[in-house]
Design a protein that fits this description.
Length: 340
């Protein structure tokens, strides 16, 4: 299998430069959404206790729009006006103490819906809320199976369901893409007989290692209560030739998640001959979501859809860049809103 590494190169024939790529059409305001509970008959044994009180949504700073205190794991599905059959499970970051829905998951979902991709936002259980470290991995694995079980009614191809993870969500996405043969929970229904392997994985400024010297993130601290967390949740420890193609984007100056972990993961993928593409941007920090106005990291969505199209996972007419956004409050190493 061919391994790709393209640092900011062109996307597809006929697109001479990123500036020539038009922004997608606005997502119709009347788009339908659907919410599906992942554990209608109760969470798996051994995954901890539900937190008390209602879900909380952040109102300010880097936590604006972030969700925490999650008792009910679920997926929220946006229905594109013109679906092309591809779907993506979107896993926002937040250090496993909250999920960056407003800053990462929802903007990405709306952009993908405009491309014709069916976006699926994962609301997963958080160890910081009292759930066991395994709980978010159970939710991600279950979500992949539920999507395959519902594929006919959702108008998606069960062979084109991928995962996109940001920061700590990148660890969930990476483990879902590598440890699909591991049972994170006992089967509960017919959906659990279906494969949980995603068909592609996009890892954006991802946490991928729990090993020194990369064990400084809040993600690791939230998982460390599980005795084998260093090996169980280090993505590069589970790379095999059976895993799907992987796209990685990271900034060299990321103060939260050292870019060295993505370099190490890419090297492992390359050596194992897993199709992979890595983009390291000179600057951009951490937590940029779709990217900001005028930033280099804002090129990753266009690079990603070109990569998807190159793997036959996106209709050619779907290739476009997201609309530019204003710069949010940048993440810093002292900001508990991210994976420090």
């Amino acid at each position: 299998m061919k391994v790709f590494i393209k640092m900011g190169l062109g996307l597809l024939a006929g697109l001479a430069c990123l500036g020539a790529i038009a922004a997608p059409p606005a997502v119709p305001a009347t788009r339908a959404t659907q919410t599906i509970a992942l554990w209608p008959d109760g969470v798996p044994a051994g995954s901890g206790r539900a937190p008390s009180g209602d879900e909380r949504v952040g109102r300010s700073g880097t936590g604006a729009g972030a969700v925490s205190n999650i008792s009910r794991a679920r997926i929220e599905i946006l229905r594109p006006a013109h679906p092309d059959g591809t779907a993506a499970l979107i896993i926002g970051g937040g250090g496993l103490f909250r999920i960056e829905i407003g800053h990462e998951s929802m903007p990405t979902a709306e952009w993908l819906a405009a491309l014709g991709v069916t976006p699926v936002i994962l609301y997963y259980r958080l160890p910081a809320d009292g759930w066991a470290p395994v709980a978010p991995f159970q939710d991600a694995q279950r979500a992949m199976r539920v999507l395959r079980a519902r594929a006919p009614s959702l108008g998606i191809d069960p062979r084109r369901i991928g995962v996109i993870g940001f920061s700590s969500g990148g660890d969930l996405a990476g483990i879902t893409a590598t440890r699909f043969g591991h049972a994170f929970y006992a089967p509960t229904d017919a959906a659990d007989q279906l494969p949980s392997r995603p068909d592609f994985a996009g890892l954006i400024y991802p946490v991928t290692s729990m090993q020194p010297p990369y064990d400084t993130t809040r993600t690791y601290r939230e998982l460390a209560a599980q005795g084998d967390a260093r090996t169980a949740y280090t993505v590069q420890s589970h790379v095999t030739t059976a895993m799907p193609p992987v796209f990685i984007a990271h900034a060299a100056d990321d103060p939260i998640v050292d870019v060295g972990s993505s370099l190490a993961l890419f090297d492992t993928l390359r050596r194992r001959r897993v199709p992979a593409e890595l983009h390291v941007f000179e600057n951009g920090g951490h937590g940029w979501g779709l990217g900001t106005l005028g930033s280099r990291v804002g090129n990753w969505p266009s690079l990603f859809v070109g990569w998807l199209a190159g793997h036959g996972l996106l209709a050619p007419q779907g290739v476009s860049a997201p609309p530019a956004t204003a710069s949010p409050t940048p993440a810093t190493p002292d900001d508990d809103g991210d994976d420090d």
